[in-house]
Each structure stands twice: as C-alpha cells, then as structure tokens.
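Long-time lurker. I teach an intro course on protein structure, and each term I like to show students one example going from raw sequence to a predicted 3D structure in token notation. This year I'd like something fresh instead of my usual example. Would anyone be willing to generate the tokens for the chain below so I can use it in lecture? Attribution to the forum is fine with me.
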Amino acid sequence: MKDLYNHDPLTLKLSLREKYSYGMGDFGSNLMLCIGTLYLLKFYTDELGMPAFYGGIIFLVAKFFTAFTDMFTGVLLDSRRNIGKEGKFRPFILYASVPVALVATAQFITNDFNLTVKTALATVLFMMFGLFYSLMNCSYGAMVPAITKNPHERAQLAAWRQGGATIGLLLCTVAFMPIQALFSGSSSLGYFVSALIFATCGLFCMWRCYSGVKERYVEIPPESHKPSILQSFYAIFRNPPLLVLCIANLCTLAAFNIKLAIQVYYTQYVLNDIHLLSWMGFFSMGCILIGVFLVPKAVKLFGKKQVYLGGLTLWAVGDVLNFLWGSSSLSFVLFSCMAFFGTAFVNSLNWALVPDTVDYGEWKTGIRTEGAVYTGYTFSRKISAALAGFLPGIMLTQIGYIPNAIQNSATLLGLRQLIFIWPCVLAIIAALTMGLFYKLNEERFALIIEEIDKRKKNNMSEHGLDENKTSVITI
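-- Reply from a regular --
Happy to contribute to a lecture. Here you go:
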C-alpha cells in the first residue's frame, strides 16, 4: 500500500478495460438475480403447485429479510480496517458469488413435499440467496467511490453497469424459456437446467469483475466511528439527497419489477403468445441498451436530474399508450420499447447518483461511510422488491388467475392493469419526488468536492504532512 496520490482525482480517466470489467459485474449478478425475478413466481405456481398468494408471501418475507442483510453488509464494510491488497470491497465479490450461484440454482429444484414444507423450503432458499447476494452486490455497488471521484467517470461506470444489467436481463428474457422448453418431457428439469446455465455464467462474470477493477480511494474510518445498522438508517435521514433518491427508487424499482413479473403472464394469457416474450425482450432490452449508451452524453448536456425526469416521462407515456392500444403483439412490443427506453435513463442514473450522496454525507458529517450510505439506499430497493414480489402474487389471486387455464375477461383486465397502470402511477410519483425535492445538482456537487479536499489538506497541514498528498490509501 501507498499513501501517495499526486494527481487530481476529479480528472482521473478510467481505462475501457476497467469500465468493461465493472459492467461485467452487474451482467453476472443479473444473470443470477433475474431468473428469480422473472420466473420464480411462475415456477412456484405452475411447477410446485403453490397458490399465487403463497408466492407473494415468500417474496415479501424473503425480501424484507434481505433488506436487513443489506444493512448488515454496510456495517461489515464500514468496520473493515485491516484491508489487504485486494481492497475493501473486491473480496466479497469474489467469495460471495459462489453461494449466490449455488442457491440461485437450488431454488428451481422441484420436490413432492406438502404445501407447508414446500413454502418453508422456498422461503429459506430465497432468504439464503438474499443474504449472499447482499454480500456480493452491495460490495460491488459501494465500490464506485473507491474507484473514482470523477463525476463523469462515475456516470460512465453507471452506464456500463446498467448496460451489463440490461444485457443480463435481455438474455434471461430471451433465452431462459426457450432453454426450458427444450425439455418438453419434463418442464421442471428444464427450469433447473436453465437456472444452472445462467448461474454458472453469472459466477464467471463476477470473477471477471473482481480481476479487472481497482480500488484507488480506500478510506479507513477513525477508531471513534462505530458502524451499526442504525448508522445506515441515519445515513438516509441525515442525508436529504439520499432520502429523496431512496423514495424515488422505491417507486421505480417496484414499478420495474412488477412489470417484469407480470409480462410472462401477459404474453401467455392476454396476447396468447408465450414465445412473444423472447421477441419483446430482444427489442425492448435493445432499446434499453441504446438508452444506456446515451446516458453519459445526455448527462453532460442536460445534467443528471433532467435526464432522470425525461426518462420517467417516456416510461409513463409508454405505459399509458400500451394500456389504451397495446392489445396486439406489434403494438405491445412498440410501446414497451418506448417505456423500457425511458427506464434505461432512470435505472442508470439511480446508480450514478448514489456516489454523489456518499460525498454529500462526508461533506455534511465529516465521516465517509460508503457502506452505510449504499446499504441504506439498497434497503429501500429491497423493500421495493419485497412489495413488487408480494403485490403480483396477491393481485393474481384477487383477479382470479388459474394456472394453465383460459382466463376470464376480469382476469385479463387485471393483468393489463398490473403491467401498465401500476408501474405508470409509480413512475409519476417518482418524477414528482425527484423534480420537487432533489437539490444536489452538478454545480453544488463540484463545490462539495472542493470543500472536502480543502478540509483534508488543512487536516494534513495541521499534522505536518505534505499538502499535495491526500488522506486516502492507494492500492
């Protein structure tokens, strides 16, 4: 380790290789996560024979549990002081990815137990997946401030991350069910083989991320700083930009996950073409990729907040058009492409804005806690995911969904409302929240970084150190 860093961190440029490696992290994690987000509820209802209500309860309980495991991960990260050459965050990416892949696969194993045991086993497996996924993914996300302080490079990393996530989601959408369908004689075996393939690929991608990124600004908190789960809650409520971002993200992630969970039912029962899911995924996720690549340029021209609001507007308009005129396969795909194009800007900037709130928290409190801020933020995401998993299960029961049967008109209308109206309303709430209450713009952020650097230089001068050196540890 060295404690010397002589160039301006705000102008540091990352290599294309490192950005690619970072993007591979969310590509790999989404290969393992999205198979559950997209198909686990359908596996529960159609293969394990569970009522949709039970599937919703499993999602609710497990996601609430993993919301608190995120907090635990934040405490663990901010407590680390004996940091080796691997860095503060990278070891968790390497080692936690193995149990994530194993449990992601195990969730798609069928059994002949009674309903109570099936439900208990599914809940425990989902909770285990959430625990290990928290250790892996929270470390991955919290690592950004340690990689670069350049806000434009952070936007680039967020774009690469969202690009990786989108390609992972695209592959899950396009390829999972066709692989599963190859085992027409045993659909349950098809689910298991598909899950095994995606989890294995995800594992190798996480290892590629570990080997390709570098932590440059690893800061060790003072001995007086004692991290706790309460610190993560404090990190939210003492940090206004983070609080606003959490509320907006609560809405957008719930909307996005509800849409993903219901689309497999919508294509099968409303449009009567389950194979359309692959084509829809190909085109809509392609639109997301285009949007992701446009994010850095759009942010440079208009600023993060304006681009974020523009994405929400496209999202809401696309859903409204789909509800009114999306009754055919072609119109459904076209309007979905518009909505998903808007989500590209929203989901990318969710990650680009979090590191800015880390710096805001350091400016306000004098203590840098990437783990507490990031896991405080992901707590809201897990609560959102819990609701997004719970509500479709409950609503499928309420609208009278019957697995593998022709649905009545009321059920079909309920599916249309679930996939379009609910996400649209949540997107509008998020837009109002960000538009009215998020005040951390680019100009203010630059002033905050400048003041933080001045504080560090003054502190080093008081201790007789070279003012040209920073207080970070360079690995």
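Some talking points for your students: The longest helix spans residues 329-365. The two ends are 5 Å apart (CA to CA).
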